[in-house]
Amino acid sequence: MLKLSLLVLLALPIVGLRAAEAREPIGSIKTDQPAVALTFDDGPCWLTPKFLELFKKEGVKATFFENGNNIKKNTELAKRALKEGHEIGNHTVNHPNLAKLKTEAEIKKQIAETQTIIKEAVGVEPKVFRAPFGSHDERVWKVLDELKLPSFMARVDTRDWDNKNETVESIIKRATAETKPGDIILMHIWQQKTLDAMPEIIKRLKAKGYRMVTVSELLAMEKK
Q1: Mean pLDDT for the stretch of residues 45-56
Q2: 8 A C-beta contact, residue 149 and residue 126
Q3: pLDDT-above-90 percentage for the chain
Q4: What is the pLDDT of residue 215?
Q5: The model's pTM
Q6: Alpha helices of the chain — where are they, by DSSP H?
Q7: Which of 41, 42, 160, 183 is catalytic?
Q8: Residue 28 gets which letter from DSSP?
Q9: Cα dist. 189→7, 67, 93, 193 in Å?
Q10: What is the domain partition of the chain in residue ranges?
Q11: Do you find a cis peptide bond into 13, omega within 30 degrees of 0?
Q12: Does 162 participate in catalysis according to the annotation?
């Protein structure tokens, strides 16, 4: 009996770990409405104004998953994005791989501190989160649960970070070719190729009848 109990106890952490690993960030929303979410990581940066000008012209809304350190350096850009109807999401202070951090306290600091930085900068606390590199473990999920922050990745990954292999045309194709209602599209705000691709991405998505909305707006369209 003692041996059996010991085996059960030893198995518990493994079961807990597997349960945590089974959780996945949200990549798309089940909806019957013709809408998708354009999302951009790692800002604000020098290209942010050009994206904002294009989005204003085209009547497009987006979600910017921002780093706390970049918010500190470019507070006015974050304020402008929010004022123009876009959403600011939490993308940690300085973009670490959260699952590789040594302690849960370090993970919580990265996420909670970014919440505070953004709230103090623009007056609104983020309601959405994206992990750098999509990296989650049981500690990350625990912190997110405590902070009541849903985690989002994307069903459509443009891979625009890959300067070596991706082109403007490949980014356009990845963003539009197989996109479905409710999809979240992942891009990066610092990528010139993505900025160059955006007019055609918007044109093709509009031609398919899609509206481009924020992640929170898309989430509100979820079909229960």
Answers
A1: 98
A2: yes
A3: 89
A4: 98
A5: 0.90
A6: 2-22, 48-58, 68-73, 75-83, 104-122, 138-147, 168-176, 192-207, 215-220
A7: 41
A8: B
A9: 50, 11, 16, 10
A10: 28-220
A11: no
A12: no
Q: Which residues of 160-196 are buried (b: 16+ CB within 10 A; e: fewer)?
A: bbeeeebebebbbbbbbeebebbbbbbbbbbbebbbe
- Rounded-to-integer distance, Cα 32 and Cα 4, Å: 51
d(CA 45, CA 64): 11
- Please pick, among 86, 91, 136, 188, the residue that the annotation labels catalytic: 188
Give mean pLDDT, residues 218-223. 96
Q: For residue 224, what pLDDT is reported?
A: 80
Residues comprising the chain, all counted: 224
157 is catalytic: no
Cα 153-159-165 angle, rounded to 5 deg: 165
CB atoms within 10 A of CB 77: 23
Locate 20 and state its tokens: 């945590």
* pLDDT at residue 68 is higher than 50: yes
For residues 179 and 185, the answer to whether their CB atoms sit within 8 Å is: yes
Q: Which residues pair with 88 in a beta bridge?
A: 64
DSSP string, 148-164: T--BB--SEE--TT-TT
Q: What's the token pair of residue 182? A: 């409710």
Pick the CATH number of 28-220 from 3.30.565.10, 3.40.50.970, 3.30.70.260, 3.20.20.370: 3.20.20.370
Rounded CA-CA distance 84/185 in Å is 20
Residues 108-157: tens digit of each pLDDT: 999 999 999 999 999 999 999 999 999 999 999 999 999 999 999 999 99
